[in-house]
Write a structure and sequence with these properties.
Length: 91
């Protein structure tokens, strides 16, 4: 009996299933629409809803981290230009 065993196997190993669902959820959140089978879509729906809920709860923290990361990346580019280390850059 399958009591308390959530999820389908889909004839894949656990690592392959994890990679498949990870890629599907990423594609769904990126493109807001994916093309897949009904069974995979129903499984991905559980994971996608969890990811969306998690992102909403940590929304402020995540946006601050992203803003900080982009500011650091922008600053790193300027530091290279200041020292003449950037290749073919126009003034």
């Amino acid at each position: 009996m399958r009591h308390r065993r959530a999820g389908l196997h889909l004839s894949r190993t656990p690592a392959h299933r994890k990679a498949l669902f990870s890629n599907l959820v990423t594609a769904l959140l990126t493109y807001e629409r994916i093309r897949t089978t009904d069974v995979k879509a129903k499984e991905v729906r559980r994971l996608a809803e969890r990811a969306i809920t998690w992102a909403r709860r940590l929304g402020g923290v995540l946006t601050k981290k992203v803003e900080k990361r982009t500011d650091e990346e922008k600053g790193a580019g300027r530091a290279c230009d200041a020292h003449g280390l950037a290749g073919n850059s126009r003034p």
